[in-house]
Structure formats: C-alpha cells, structure tokens
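Q: I'm a student working through a structural biology exercise. My instructor gave each of us a protein and asked us to get a predicted structure, then write a short paragraph describing it. Mine is Transcriptional regulator, AcrR family. I'm not confident about reading structure output yet, so if you can add a plain explanation after the tokens, that would really help. Here is the sequence I was given:
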Amino acid sequence: MPHHRADVLAHAVQLLDAHGLAALTMRRLGTELRVQPSAIYHHFENKQTLLAAVADEILVRGPATRGGLPSGSHGATERLREVCGDLREAMLAVTDGADVVATAWAFGLGAQGPARELERVLAAAGADAELVAVGSRTLLHYVFGHTFEEQTARQAISAGAVDRALDSIPDFDLGLGLVLDGLRGRLPS
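A: Happy to help. First, here is the predicted structure for Transcriptional regulator, AcrR family. I'll explain a few features afterward.
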C-alpha cells in the first residue's frame, strides 16, 4: 500500500516521540511502514529534509499562536514571551523535540516560524535591524538551550541514568524574563 507524504511524516514524528532521535532512521521508518527505505526518498530527498519536515510538524502541533501586533514595548515583551513559551511547549511535547527543531533551524532547513515571528514583533516595536537580528537569535538560543537541557534531564531522570531532581533545572520563566528585560531596555519607549 503506497503512503502519502503526510503519512510518512506523521509516522516519523510518532517514531521520534516513541524512541528518540537516534531511532529515527530512513531504514527503520521504511521497515515500520512496510516499504523499502528507498520508498521514503520518494517523499523526502534525504534525512535532513525529513528532519526539517519533522521540526516544522512539531511546531505546527504545538500551541496555537495568538498572533496580533503588540503596541508599545510592554506589549512587545509579552508577545515575545508568548512566542518563546509556545516554542518551548511544542518542543517539550515530543521526545528530542528541542534537538530536532534547533538543528533544523540552525541548518536553515526548517523551523523558521518562531524566528520570523520574533523578528516581526521586534521590528513592530521599533527595534533597528541589528537589534531585530540579535534579539531574535538571543531569544531562540535561550529557548533552544534551556529546553534541550530540560528535555535531556527529564529523559535521564526518568531512565534512572542520573540522580537529579527536576526542580534542579533553572526556572525557564525567570531566565526568559532576564533576557526580555534587557531587550525592553533597548526598545524605543
């Protein structure tokens, strides 16, 4: 039975969530779909394009975006907080989601939506081009890094691989607030 691209992608996300990134191979995906691995290449040119599509799917499945252009630096800060929180939640919802999304974004293969939204909000708040670029990247790096650490720690704790409590992970909201306070100070009043 032939599979559509959407079926292959849905199964790839399911495989990732069930077994982690190391298990998401073209061979295993083909085996689970009962097709030759070469059949997967009909839908995805290579593993990188598959992972980019998986990253985009993780973000699509995440929280619904609230949208809307903010007014003033306070409104911009709250919208930036929402975008970052939504990104974190989407990545945490899938095993190794932070690794997949951050990698696809870094390689420029996918997962560009949050970056574009952060840039849009900063520009609408009056930030100059340099602050838009650096501010959005700084926020993304914070969210990716924190979420990767949190996800990795949760997996290690649940597997009994480390003796660490979840409350030892630094507070996401506090750290995000520190970054946003610095950005707010550079936005026009």
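A: Here are two points you could use in your paragraph. The chain has a mean pLDDT of 90. Residues 95 and 149 are 13 Å apart (CA to CA). It's a good idea to check both against the output above yourself.
Q: Great, thank you!
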